[in-house]
Fold:
Amino acid sequence: MKPVGFAGLQKAKGKIEMTATAAGSVDSKSTMKISHTLFTLFGLSAIGNATFAPAQRQVLVTYPEDTPHSILQEAKEAVLAAGGKINGEFTLIKGFAATVSNEILDSVTALSESHRPTVEDDSVVTIQKQDPLEE
Structure:
């Protein structure tokens, strides 16, 4: 009896089936089918994961001066728990920078009725337009 080797994958009736041949008898056509099938499977998997990830944006979340520390802490924990990222914390004002989805922002904004945060996109701000040729 000859040993059996892996030869390819086939999709039949919604199921992926593995076919086998005698060891050493895999030809280039079979190898090409295997490569194409695996590429298709992994490619579709990657595309599927990308389309289900919510859009993330970088924001600054600031709170009124009288906001208790516990509300800030609760907001940061909510961001992290929902898959967001805290990019920095402010020391002169109450707030933090984060990368989050809009859904997370909605829940963070709703944490406190009396201490509503201000949320703005994190971006570079300049006070004067400079021409690089004038320097």
User: Anything to note?
Assistant: Confidence is low (pLDDT under 50) at residues 1-9.
